[in-house]
Amino acid sequence: FQQFSDTGSRKEHVKVTSEHKPGFLERLSETSAGMVVGLVTFLLAFYLLFTNEGRALRTAKSLDEGLSLVVSLDSIHSISQQNEGRLVHLAGALSTSKPLFDPSYGLSIHAVKLKRNVEMYQWVEYEDSKEYEENGEIKKETKYSYNTEWKSEVVNSRNFDREIGHKNPSAMAVESFTAVSPNVQVGSFVLSKGLVDKIDDFKQLSLAHLEDPHADVTRRGDFFYHSDNPRRPEVGDLRVSFFYAGLSGDDPHLGTAAKVTVIARQRGDQLVPYHTKFGDVLEMLYPGDLSVEEVFQKEHESNTMKTWALRAAGWLSMFVGISLMTRIFYTLVDWFPVVRDLVNVGLKAFALCVASSLSLLTISVGWLFYRPLWALLLALLSAVPILLARSRVPPKKQQ
Asked: Where do the TM regions start and end (predicted)?
């Protein structure tokens, strides 16, 4: 069953599908498959939590090692052989040997990176679904709506529920790309590929001082339009914008050259990765003029954020895994609404407590070889959720 309506540039229709309510054996089969997925997720959580702690501690020790060895250079314009192979710290303006070009639009810039971003005006499908039970059947009502938007990726309209009237081109006539300067320096030092990759603070390039490159291309604001009427684009029209990162040299329109702070190993006139005795690689680049302490503080903060993010991901994986593995108990009683709801709450509480305890225990094992005292304290803390859960259970009456 479908209903159609047209609201200006936004079109929508509703589609209702129905299927028989699955029987007990079907639900049990689905639950069994979910248990297998839950077991895999549960085991992966252990691996994620355990390896994350070792990685975090190894990175912290590597940063401490680097801080104790790093040497700040007096000048970035002279290369001292005394620092050969050592971890060095320097700050200065970026410079490149040649400008980056986009001849198709008559554009050039002295920068580390130049990115051309191409967008096409296309139909986009949105859907909003809801399920309900009626006459012993499960019905799904889906509202499909269509709108025209600028998108940097081709939207495949063949996957739409209703392609008629919402057909998109299969490809763009102009492609996006990113050009990178082959030689990037700070003073007399050449940056490695890894350091160049870290220069990613892209800013949109103003096109106000440029003319229309072709008769079929119109500049409007900071975009080049492949359109007969940029104010009222049609499906298939293109617009192109440009972004740059790491401005090299002073530019009358863009300002002064970008300054960066680098910590890496000196090898001749090159700055390359430094390998610590803990197995990590130190290769740091930050915008601005920063001291050694500021750079390493930022690295420690980044390591802490990554550690907590992976801890949260590990706990969530364990919680989901336990929930899927215990879902079978919910399936066995889902014919009885009151009992079903109570069991569902109990299973969620069980998964929460067990996931928290096992996560803390796994983290403590990961710390065992690095910080034994903290590992012992975490192991004791891991028992708290289960003890709290047991304390809420009323004691048995004395016989």
From this structure: 32-50, 308-329, 374-393
- C-alpha to C-alpha distances, 310 to 40, 51, 77, 124, 284, nearest whole angstrom: 17, 10, 42, 34, 22
Residue carrying structure tokens 């499909």: 144
In whole angstroms, give the CA distance from residue 18 to residue 357: 43
3-state class (DSSP) for residue 205: coil
The predicted-structure confidence for 43-56, as pLDDT tens digits, reads as follows 999 999 988 988 99
Tokens matching residue 138: 């499960």
Residues in CB range of 81: below 8 A, 6 or more apart: none
DSSP assignment letter at 77:
S
* The token pair that represents 316 in the structure block: 């969530």
Task: Indicate the angle between helix axes 337-367 and 384-391, nearest 10 degrees.
Answer: 150
Can you tell me the distance from the alpha carbon of 327 to that of 255, in angstroms, rounded to the nearest whole number?
61
Quick one: which H or E segment has residue 395?
none
Q: How far are the Cα atoms of 31, 54, 94, 217, 262 from residue 89, in angstroms, in the given order?
A: 57, 27, 15, 47, 6
pLDDT level of residue 399 (50, 70, 90 thresholds): very low
Alpha-carbon gap, residue 165 to 225, rounded angstroms: 24
Residues in Cβ contact with 318 at an 8 Å cutoff, skipping those fewer than 6 apart: 41, 42, 45, 46, 49, 355, 358, 359
Higher-pLDDT residue of 296 and 337 is: 296
Contact 158, 167 (CB under 8 A): no
pTM for the model stands at 0.79
Contacts of 376 (CB under 8 A, 6+ apart): 364
How many angstroms separate the Cα of 5 from the Cα of each of 11, 14, 234, 334? 6, 9, 21, 39
Q: CA–CA separation, 186 vs 360, rounded Å? A: 45
Extract long-range pairs of 275-280: CB within 8 Å, 24+ residues apart.
Answer: 276/61, 276/62, 276/65, 276/66, 277/65, 278/58, 278/61, 278/62, 278/65, 279/58, 279/62, 280/58, 280/59, 280/62
One-letter identity of residue 60: A
With 70 as the cut, is the pLDDT of residue 82 above it? yes
Tell me, what amino acid is at 221? G
